[in-house]
Amino acid sequence: MKNKKITIIGGGNLGQAIAKGIVNSNVIDPSNLTVTRRRVEFIKDLTKSGIHITSDNKAASTGADIIFLGVKPYQVEDIVTEIKDCVTENTIIISLATGVDSLTIEKYFDKKLPIFRAMPNTAIAIGQSMTCISAHNAGEDQSQVVLTLFEQVGEALIIPEELMAAATVLAACGIAFALRFVRAATQGGIEIGFGADLALKIASQTVKGAADLLINSGTHPEHEIDKVTTPRGVTISGLNEMEHQGFSSSLIKGLITSFNKIENGK
């Protein structure tokens, strides 16, 4: 992996997060990583880590072993048209574009390539992403390369492509939903007496601890909830009030709304 030449086309928030995560994990030498953006001044800080930056997508793609398409869905066709003559049949393509399937990407390239769709979240910058990946025209070795790449920056799973839209909602959108919970808990903490900074610290660590508890123990959330709810206790009173106000149903509706947005484009 160290000697792989990797290009990230599209140095937006996600592209930069991936670049930083890859470099921080030491999975490749920074000199083998190139990030492109039309206005390179917005990504100049990446050079401090030894990453190459450029606005020339074709030059960055030439000779690359792995190319990330870190652009908006409506930009994919134009970008692929621009670089398709620079890739070979062994170039691994990893698309981060929501809602653009592998067959469509293959059609744009007009050649058979190993194409992966990946949906990390922004926690990739600190090596804590949950990345879901689908594979098309890919061999086992190529799939392992991509899986290993993302495993260096968090957890990664290979899933059927038909679940990629759902994975986008649960993992990528999901990090924003989790952060909104932390914000709400912080605001509640302020109302019951904590300063803003202290409330945020307590809420953030509590959520981290809850997640780690499930990951490390492999138990169901309700099992852990039962441990802290006692008859006529303060925890169950608070939980029941949240449910009366639609806490779980509003979260589920939010997930479904985001999913329908991807599926229907509305």
Q: How many helix segments?
A: 10
Rounded to an integer, what's the Rg over CA atoms? Answer: 21 Å
Low-confidence stretches: none
Q: What is the distance, rounded to the nearest whole angstrom, between the alpha carbons of the first and last residues?
A: 40 Å
Mean pLDDT: 93
Structural class: alpha/beta
Strand sequence of the main sheet, in spatial order? 3-2-1-4-5-6-7-8
Overall, the morphology is: elongated
Main sheet specs? 8 strands, mixed
Helix content: 40-55%
Series of secondary-structure elements, N-terminal to C-terminal: EHEEHEHEHEEHEHHHHH
What is the fold-level CATH name, i.e. the topology of the largest domain?
A: Rossmann fold
User: How many domains make up the 3D coordinates?
Assistant: 2
GO molecular function: pyrroline-5-carboxylate reductase activity
Family: Belongs to the pyrroline-5-carboxylate reductase family.
EC number: 1.5.1.2
Pfam family, one: F420_oxidored
Written account of the structure:
- It is an enzyme of class 1 (oxidoreductase).
- It catalyses: L-proline + NADP(+) = (S)-1-pyrroline-5-carboxylate + NADPH + 2 H(+); L-proline + NAD(+) = (S)-1-pyrroline-5-carboxylate + NADH + 2 H(+).
- This is Pyrroline-5-carboxylate reductase.
- One of its GO terms (biological process) is L-proline biosynthetic process.
- This protein is α/β, with parallel strands linked by helices.
- The protein is built from ten helices and eight strands.
- It folds into two domains: 6-159, Rossmann fold (3-Layer(aba) Sandwich), CATH 3.40.50.720; 168-264, ProC C-terminal domain-like (ProC C-terminal domain-like fold, Orthogonal Bundle), CATH 1.10.3730.10.
- Strands 3-2-1-4-5-6-7-8 form an eight-stranded mixed β-sheet, sandwiched between helices.
- It is elongated.
